[in-house]
Amino acid sequence: MNRELAGKVAIVTGAGRMRSIGRPIAKTLGQAGAAIVITGTGRRPEDYPEDEKTAGWRDIESVADEVRQLGAPCLALVSDIRDEGAVVQAVQRTVAEFGRLDIVINNASAARGPDRVPVTEMPYEIWRKVIVTNLDGTFLLSRAAARQLIAQGEGGSIVNISSIASKLAPPNTAAYASSKAAINALSRSMALELAPHRIRVNAVCPGVIDTFRMDDLGRGERWRNFVKTMIPLGYPGDGSECAEFVLFLVSERGKWITGQAINVDGGSAWGN
């Protein structure tokens, strides 16, 4: 791979899962030459999915090892994106370790769970957890990163991982869809504010990606029917598709793209 990000430093949040979007993003940016900082929540091993337990997975440390094997330096940080102080410290640690910051990928997101119910049945604390994790976390790191990028005076790129749910807003996804729609709006507003500093901000809206988040839908025939119904191209993504598009956006190839919310979804949200 062309090391088009040589000399750049990137933060990728939520990058500890074996089946995820964050892991391939971190590896793809590292392979392209960037120094990588990955964050995770510090999950307990007993809470890992069975395939991670079987593989001897070590969360962000496993991903960090993979990035290093690709020839890129990697710092793994346990950090809570919902905590303003922790987010500021993550940016400070990045600059202390690598001397600068160029790219931020806000990938961390609340897992599917008790929020997937009708609004009339959703407890406020569940709504609030999804909004705070997805929207507030993205805001806090974007703000801290933007301050650093402005101070450096050399531009930069922020990519916020949204979802096609932000545009389709299907039933029983009110909290998640609302949080992701808000991320699209945040991305657009920040893009306009930061354009004079040559800092680009975009949102990527993945469709159905075969990650741990999909496990609660069931597998086998139910999963195959879901995929057939949802995805015109007929198969789910595995995260690499999003990673390649993120690389395009943060590289010189994407230098004239900002303020966009772009679907990577096999055609699921056509026309949105």
Description:
The protein has 272 residues and is of the alpha/beta class. It has one domain (9-264): NAD(P)-binding Rossmann-like Domain (Rossmann fold). The chain is 43% helix and 14% strand. The chain contains 9 helices and 7 strands; from the N terminus they run βαβααβαβαβααβααβ. Strand 4, helix 5 (124-152) and strand 5 (156-161) form a beta-alpha-beta unit. Helix 1 crosses helix 9 (240-250) and helix 4 (84-98) runs parallel beside helix 5 (124-152). It is globular and about 50 Å long.
Helix content: 40-55%
Give me the strand/helix succession: EHEHHEHEHEHHEHHE
Rounded to the nearest angstrom, the radius of gyration is 18 Å
Q: Could you give a short account of the major beta sheet?
A: 7 strands, parallel
Output the CATH topology: Rossmann fold
The CATH C-level class name: Alpha Beta
Mean pLDDT: 95
Question: How much strand?
Answer: 5-15%
Tally the helices: 9
Give a brief description.
The chain is 43% helix and 14% strand.
Layout of secondary structure:
Elements: E1 9-12, H1 22-31, E2 35-40, H2 50-55, H3 60-69, E3 74-78, H4 84-98, E4 103-106, H5 124-152, E5 156-161, H6 165-168, H7 174-194, E6 199-206, H8 221-230, H9 240-250, E7 261-264
Parallel strand pairs: 1-2, 1-4, 2-3, 4-5, 5-6, 6-7
Keywords:
alpha/beta; 272 residues; 7 strands; Rossmann fold; 9 helices
